[in-house]
Amino acid sequence: MPHLTKSDTTMQHFLDIHKTPADHLRAIIDQAREMKTARAGRPRGMPDDDQPLAGRMVALIFEKPSTRTRVSFDVGVRQMGGQTMVLSGADMQLGHGETIADTARVLSRYVDLIMIRTFDESVLLEMAEYADVPVINGLTDRTHPCQIMADILTYEEHRGPIKGKKVVWSGDGNNVCASLLHAAGQFGFDLTFTGPMQLDPEGEFIGLARKAGSTITIERDPHKAAEGADLVVTDTWVSMHDSQSTKERRHNMLRSYQVNDKLMEVAKPDALFMHCLPAHREEEVTSAVMDGPHSVVFDEAENRLHAQKAVMRWCLGV
Ligand code: CP
Ligand code: NVA
Question: What's the pTM value of the predicted model, to 2 decimals?
Answer without folding.
Answer: 0.96
